Amino acid sequence: MPRVSQDHLDARRRQILDGARTCFARYGYEGATVRRLEEATGLSRGAIFHHFRDKESLFLALAEDDARRMADVVSREGLVQVMRDLITGGEADERPADWLGTRLEVSRRLRTDPEFRAHWAQRSAQLTTATRERLERQREAGNLRDDVPVPVLASYLELVLEGVVSHLAMGLPADDLEPVLDVVEESVRRFRRG
Amino acid sequence: MPRVSQDHLDARRRQILDGARTCFARYGYEGATVRRLEEATGLSRGAIFHHFRDKESLFLALAEDDARRMADVVSREGLVQVMRDLITGGEADERPADWLGTRLEVSRRLRTDPEFRAHWAQRSAQLTTATRERLERQREAGNLRDDVPVPVLASYLELVLEGVVSHLAMGLPADDLEPVLDVVEESVRRFRRG
């Protein structure tokens, strides 16, 4: 068996994750059969499960991958920007519909699967951490209201995010949400109105 | 066949709705079999389907009943109070857990059933109407911020409500949401902060 480079392994792993993301988004977790995962990734089951122990591990890797990317956007631009990306469709290369698909599947399994919930709680902490850290930096820069503790403002933003995900999941129109997110953004800022 | 009074019919209908609510909340729509509906209501299938054409009609009647009660609370006390009732468990006689069960089932079916979505769109309008009317009254009374149109503020509150429902559905702790709802409430009010 030839030795393969780390770059090659990483690229293969990325190929599997990208295909699987589309597949889970389209068919849901239960509906994403091994055959469909093979079609979506263009790889055999042997290749797929060489990189991921089972479907569960693959889905978790995907959800973690998305959570990490979401935390990156939060660090750079804030959680409200994540919501704006969701409602407008996001950056062209980000395939937000697929991203939303994974997020919805996570929400669904959190509701119905206590084991998954416990497992996920540890991993989702990074979004909360990224949100709080960004808010702390905004507060230090004097951009944030200072009459409400940062953890409360972080919980507030995460609650609105859940609302946005739920709204999109229900197929409701999102084009009227832009001014709503302006209200959200403004309500965490240092601000004066009459 | 004896003639029955309207009061009797109404009481029987109420008995069916109350039993069915508990049943749908516990087992979900699919899991609420006719046998389980009989057990939960204490009535035969003949009696149940004398009042409601089929399970679908029964569920819709229940969801409409809840939407109407929710609109009543909104008219009297505002949508933020509906959210507070949800996170604290609500009034003792309201059985909010069952109420949440119906709400979640509605959310789930909105996601997965386009026909139900079209049907529901007409009925859910009353919550939006109640929310907007209350906000209009608050604005006339000088309690509301006046730099954002009422429909935007109504959409904002409905989005946060979706977030609360989703949060509770995922089994996340709700005891830290009280100060978050203070932020929400305050962000629609006429207010000045430094």
TrEMBL record, chains A, B:
Protein name per UniProt:
TetR family transcriptional regulator
Q: Which Gene3D superfamilies match?
A: Tetracycline Repressor, domain 2 (1.10.357.10)
Q: Which species does this protein come from?
A: Labedaea rhizosphaerae
List the Pfam families. Answer: TetR_N (PF00440)
Instruction: Read off the PROSITE patterns from this record.
Output: HTH_TETR_1, HTH_TETR_2
Subunit:
Homodimer.
InterPro entries given for it?
A: DNA-bd_HTH_TetR-type_CS, Homeodomain-like_sf, HTH_TetR, Tet_transcr_reg_TetR-rel_C_sf
What residue stretches are annotated with the HTH tetR-type domain? 10-70
User: GO molecular function terms here?
Assistant: DNA binding
Keywords, sorted A to Z: DNA-binding, Repressor, Transcription, Transcription regulation
